[in-house]
Design a protein that fits this description.
The chain has about 300 residues and is of the alpha/beta class. The protein contains 9 helices and 8 strands. Helix 4 links the parallel strand 5 and strand 6. The mean pLDDT is about 90.
């Protein structure tokens, strides 16, 4: 009669541990690869501009302080004020055609450009707001030297990554007198935890580690910590109530942290970036009213 061989407890434990470590390694590897992809997104070609839209635009080049050339368009100001318009991740300036047209028709000078690593601009590393602050500073430098623009009447509008960059840039550059953001994230770490937190630290930490090892100052991309340092400059937050990329609880946290003057418009039924699709007239009115009050009052 054969006696069944029972596996020793130590061997069972070792096999189980190896299985757990293998799962951990797979999760970590997949999230490192994901982080590498978001640092180097595929470039999207510029979308066609409808005939008659953005009339009078000219091609411009901006030079950042770290030596990159950024390409974009400028529409001259007719009211002495101007707004920088910044697109989101893995897009380009043509993502913001609606916003640019609204502001241009209202008389504003509009500078929309491709951020580093996007569209027709130089650079191959996207840093989620960290080095993009230099892109915004280059845009403000450009507008400040324009004969058609009063340098005391400058604002910025950004979507998603561009919105977070707008807040960061304004906190560092007092020349920006008004900040409007749509679908922005309050901090890079908070966004990473929300987007990649399925397995908790197992999935979050490899992403954060990869970002940091690639030279991204993750801790610096945290405008929510310092929003009150806008010191009286108005802030407009816009978000869709079904935005899966910029969920309501993160937007609510941004708004609660900010100091007055501030305003918050939630677009019913809008996913990420669907403000013009769901409520075009209201969206246009909110942008015009906000910048009119911030940049034209007393003119």
């Amino acid at each position: 009669m054969k006696i069944p061989i029972r596996p020793r407890p130590a061997r069972v434990f070792a096999l189980a541990l190896l299985g757990v470590l293998a799962v951990v390694a797979v999760i970590a590897y997949r999230n490192v690869r994901t982080a590498q992809a978001v640092l180097h997104p595929a470039r999207q070609p510029l979308k066609p501009v409808a005939e008659g839209a953005l009339a009078g635009r000219t091609d411009v080049e901006l030079r950042t302080r770290d030596g990159l050339t950024l390409r974009g368009w400028y529409l001259p100001s007719r009211n002495r004020a101007a707004v920088v318009v910044m697109h989101g991740f893995a897009e380009n300036r043509t993502q913001m055609l609606f916003e640019a047209e609204v502001l241009s028709r209202a008389g504003y000078g509009v500078l929309l450009f491709d951020s580093r690593g996007h569209g027709e601009s130089e650079g191959d590393l996207v840093t989620w707001g960290d080095r993009e602050r230099q892109d915004l500073r280059a845009a403000v430098d450009f507008l400040s030297l324009r004969d058609d623009v009063d340098p005391s009447r400058l604002g910025v509008l950004g979507f998603s990554m561009g919105g977070t960059t707008a807040m960061l840039g304004a906190l560092e550059d007092p020349r920006l007198k008004a900040v409007a953001t749509a679908g922005a994230y309050p901090s890079l770490e908070a966004d990473t935890r929300y987007s990649y937190g399925k397995w908790g630290p197992l999935s979050v930490q490899p992403v954060l580690w990869t970002l940091r090892m690639s030279g991204v100052d993750v801790d610096a991309v945290d405008p929510m910590k310092h929003l009150c340092d806008l010191k009286g400059r108005p802030l407009l937050l816009i978000n869709g109530d079904v935005d899966e990329y910029a969920p309501a609880f993160l937007q609510d946290a941004l708004f609660q942290t900010a100091c007055e003057p501030k305003s918050y418009w939630v677009v019913p039924g809008a996913h990420h970036g669907e403000y013009a699709k769901k409520a075009p007239e209201e969206y246009a009115r909110h942008l015009r009213d906000f910048f009119d009050a911030a940049l034209l009052s007393g003119s």
